[in-house]
Amino acid sequence: MTLSRLLSTTKADPILHGTVAYHRSYILLPVPESPQILPARVSNPLHRSLQLQTMPWGGLVNFASTMETGNVTAFSTLNGVLHLPTLTSENVSDIAEQLQRHATVPGKYPQDGKLHIYVCTHAARDCRCGDTGGVVFRALCEELDARKRVDPGGTANRVVLGEVAHVGGHQFAANVLVFPHGEWFGRLTPNDVSALLDSLLSSDQRPLNLQDKPLLPQFWRGRMGLHKEQQMSLVNSQTLK
Predict the structure, then answer these.
(1) Which of 80, 83, 114, 113 is nearest to 207 (CA)?
(2) CA 157 to each of CA 141, 143, 234: distance values in angstroms, whole numbers, following the listed order
(3) 88 and 120 share one domain
(4) Could you tell me which of 42, 10, 45 has the C-alpha nearest to residue 122?
(5) How many folded domains does the chain comprise?
(6) What share of residues in the chain are helix, strand, coil (percent, to 5)?
(7) Is the pTM of this model over 0.85?
(8) So which residues are the signal peptide here (predicted)?
(9) pLDDT tens-place string over residues 15-62
(10) Which domain holds residue 79?
(11) What are the tens digits of pLDDT across the range 174-193?
């Protein structure tokens, strides 16, 4: 399959909207290497333990690498971003409890004021994510660098760009997850990168709710905190161009 085919869509392509599994919290564990070189199946005892403890209330755990070093980072529909210490066998249950409170109990959590963008580039899981996700990730890097050169103190400096492992929906590559908004996008190409950043950087840096219109609806897969039926209802209530 050629790259040009990977970057194109046809009438036969599956429906994009409403394809995000319901979750109340998206939890990212750091990996030092790019997901482009991770094995097809990525897991370890700590990941499995945390996933088992968070799944009952709507937590999803994944691996990511970013431009910034960090530990556990989680996003919830209720309280935005949460940064936690390194996950260990001694603190996994305590961290799971903190994540549950963050996802289910309203509170005042310090927000980092940053826009977190994650591109699925998990090549060994599916070549479409490796190829299409890879070129979109590189295009985002180049676009952000260009914006920082033009405006060194501008909004591009608020972006944390990262790569994430398998998110589901290989056929929608390139898949891009955006937080704290909670928006999931699919079928993005390098040509869409500038419009994506314009839309995200001009919107409020907060988790979006059921009443908020989808950002970039032509690429919108769904939103954290919404069931499939709610995602479809939100899409159907808008005029998609």
Answers:
(1) 80
(2) 12, 12, 31
(3) no
(4) 42
(5) 2
(6) 35, 20, 45
(7) yes
(8) none
(9) 999 999 999 999 999 988 888 888 889 889 999 999 999 999 999 999
(10) 25-104
(11) 999 999 999 999 999 999 99
